[in-house]
Amino acid sequence: RQTSSADSRARGSDVASNDPLLRKNASMPSDMSDVASQCSVHSARRARSWCFDEKVLIQSLYKVMISVAESDPIILYIRDVDHFLHRSQRTYTMFQKMLAKLSGQVLILGSRLHNSDAEYNGMEDRVSSLFPYHVDIKPPQEEIHLNGWKTQMEEDARKIQIQDNRNHIVEVLSANDLDCDDLSSICQADTMVLSNYIEEIIVSAVSYHLVHTKDPEYKNGKLLLSSKSLSHGLSIFQETGLGGKDTLKLEANEDGLKGAPGSKKPESDKSPGKDGDAPPPKPEIPDNEFEKRIRPEVIPPSELGVTFDDIGALADIKESLQELVMLPLRRPDLFKGGGLLKPCRGILLFGPPGTGKTMLAKAIANDAGASFINVSMSTITSKWFGEDEKNVRALFSLAAKVAPTIIFVDEVDSMLGQRARCGEHEAMRKIKNEFMSHWDGILSKSGERILVLAATNRPFDLDEAIIRRFERRIMVGLPTQDSRELILRTVLSKEKVDKDIEYKELATMTEGYSGSDLKNLCVTAAYRPVRELLKKERLKEMERRK
User: Fold this and answer.
1) Residue 18 · residue 25 · CB < 8 Å
2) Rounded to whole angstroms, how far apart are CA atoms 401 and 160?
3) pTM score
4) Which segments show compositional bias classed as Basic and acidic residues (predicted)?
5) Distance between CA atoms of 338 and 322, rounded to whole angstroms?
6) What is the average per-residue pLDDT within 341-355?
7) ∠ CA(520), CA(523), CA(525), 5° rounding?
8) ∠ CA 185-189-194 to the nearest 5 degrees?
9) Which end of the chain offers a freer environment for a tag, N or C, measured as fewer CB atoms within 10 Å?
10) CATH domain 481-545 topology
11) What is the pLDDT of residues 473-492, one digit of tens each?
12) What count of other Cβ atoms lies within 10 Å of the Cβ of residue 360?
């Protein structure tokens, strides 16, 4: 077990009080509480990378220890001393000379992990020669003590992970001219995230902070984020990655965005010229042959006919889409600074069939006021050799003309599946390569307001390069009981229904139903009175004939 500076306080006094009795490689309890209570303990934590000069480091350590030792005893604790001394021969030599010069009330403790399977390289003996007294800390043999030891190990690992994530957050903030007012106030549960997602978390935090802060504060030229904004970014990750519910609601509606700080007028609303006339619009580039073929697939937002109000439940997913899609499309001025704050270029909706993925895509395009291009294999493929790639090129050039644009690919696995499939035609691989190049590759342009939104119920069939380009992957699962009740109320809101209908009972009876299944259930029920009416009319007709 690796010990920390706090652990040294729990050690006994055997080491300090019985120095003459100690022998090299002796095994004993490492109890130093008496010494620690009288000394100031300094912990030299392990760094991710060494970005300083060894001579400056060791000289500084020596000066600090000599200065403190003049008035108080001092303990210097070096975690993973092997990593420190293995850096170079120069480091080992200077550290050895520093030990020879030290005197007075100074104690240096070092720790290392012993791996019996590691190859012998001779360096362990050299390190051992610098530390004449060795204390072996082994797992306890008794079952009751072993269980407690394992519990403590898990707790220590959790604390180390939390601190490592916080350090990573600080590094990313500093690298992008950002700062946090109170990073320590973020609860420990929030910081238990994967380091690979910290950049995305900070992007969400910056978006939330700019929308909800009237006058953003800057400190030493850095944007000062609130701990609340950072906690919101963490909760967004937990919602999309861990399935939790978001407790911080993002007010990303039109009125809220217009009142956000730093808002600018769109480029089209420029001031009039000297004569009071508006500046002439830029001449439109006519569509080429391939763009004309795709033009019928462009659907204006006014013709989509689906809003978020038409979708029952999925509140947490709708809020995530509003932040990821609507904010960059409506407020592109907030994303011009570069760095981490960039518009999302790809979102993947995956889940069982009939859960509302296509409706979500139409609703987000309608509410964001973006053009909607529904892409399928028939849109791209052609019987003529070489025209498939030209159609892909025309797709993105046309999307740039009608921007902001959402390119929607339903059942994306059938179009952009794995390139290693056996028997796949070479033309399909060319289509995928061309699509990726224009989407997020050499041929893509950072200023284009184009979002690729895809849906699939077979995400594992997608190519790895395609999955990588989907910066956000949101699962749209089967609705819960409360969600099923809300979906039924939404579907039947415009119908004439019995006032005594029990929505909660219906939701309980429809366990495992998707949103599409619930709608089909309502459609089937709607045909019931029609059949009864036709039956009554036939009976009346038969009686009249008699």
Assistant:
1) no
2) 50
3) 0.46
4) 264-277
5) 21
6) 84
7) 110
8) 105
9) C
10) Helicase, Ruva Protein; domain 3 (1.10.8)
11) 888 888 888 888 888 888 88
12) 23
Which phi and psi (to 5°) does residue 295 adopt? -55, -40
**Cα(336)–Cα(343) distance, integer angstroms:** 9
| Encoded amino acid at 20, one letter | P
Assess whether pLDDT exceeds 60 at residue 321: yes
Write the DSSP assignment of 434-468 as a string of letters.
HHHHHHHSTT--TT--EEEEEEES-GGGB-HHHHH
Domain coordinates of the chain in residue numbers?
7-130, 157-258, 289-475, 481-545
Encoded tokens for 465: 């390069």
Tell me, what's the pLDDT at 161?
A: 80
Structure tokens at 122: 């001779």
Q: At what angle do helices 54-69 and 89-101 cross, to 10 degrees?
A: 20
Provide the total of helices (H) and of strands (E) in the chain, helices listed first. Answer: 21, 12
**Token output for 194:** 């994967």
The answer, yes or no, to whether residue 120 has pLDDT greater than 80, is no
For residue range 1-10, what is the model confidence (pLDDT) as tens digits? 333 333 433 3
Q: pLDDT confidence of 188, banded at 50, 70, 90?
A: low
Say how many residues make up the chain: 546
Q: Which CATH number fits domain 289-475: 3.40.50.300, 3.40.50.360, 1.20.272.10, 3.30.9.10?
A: 3.40.50.300
Tokens of 477: 């699962």
- Grouping H, G, I as helix, E, B as strand and the rest as coil, residue 83 is helix
The amino acid at residue 314 is L
| pLDDT band at residue 23 using 50, 70 and 90 as cut-offs | very low
Nearest CA-CA partner of 454 in 539, 373, 367: 373
How, if at all, do strands 405-410 and 472-475 pair? unpaired
User: Which two three-digit tokens encode residue 216?
Assistant: 């953003």
Instruction: Tell which wins on pLDDT, 325 or 523.
Output: 523
